[in-house]
Amino acid sequence: MGKTLKEKAEENGLTIETVRRRMKNGWTEKKALTTPLQTNKSHKKIKVEMPAESKKPLDVEKYEDGFILTISITLLGVAIVGILWLLNK
To answer: For 84, which DSSP code?
Structure first.
């Protein structure tokens, strides 16, 4: 009996989700299984420094992708829009 798609994906260092997404986007099974993951090397690490008076140091490595910063800015924007909407109501 042949190998499952999941087994083939794992042999190539890929997740089944990656292979399925590729195939859904029109890739052939062979191409989806044999193309390695590409990393975006244009992303630069952002060094975040906390004020000296801050008691809790920021674990920069934990947030190296800027994910938390992005979410925080997005939530701040949503809050501002909500406040402005309420003020104009």
So the answer is: H
12 φ/ψ angles, rounded to the nearest 5 degrees: -100, 10
Residue 40 CB partners (closer than 8 Å, separation 6+): none
34 in Cβ contact with 22 (< 8 Å): no
Range among 5-9, 49-53, 67-71 rated most confident:
5-9
The DSSP letter of residue 57 is -
- Position 11, amino acid: E
For the residues 21-25, what does the mean pLDDT come to? 93
Contact (CB, 8 A) for 19 and 33: yes
Q: 75: part of which helix (H) or strand (E)?
A: helix 67-87
Question: Token match 């997404």: residue?
Answer: 21
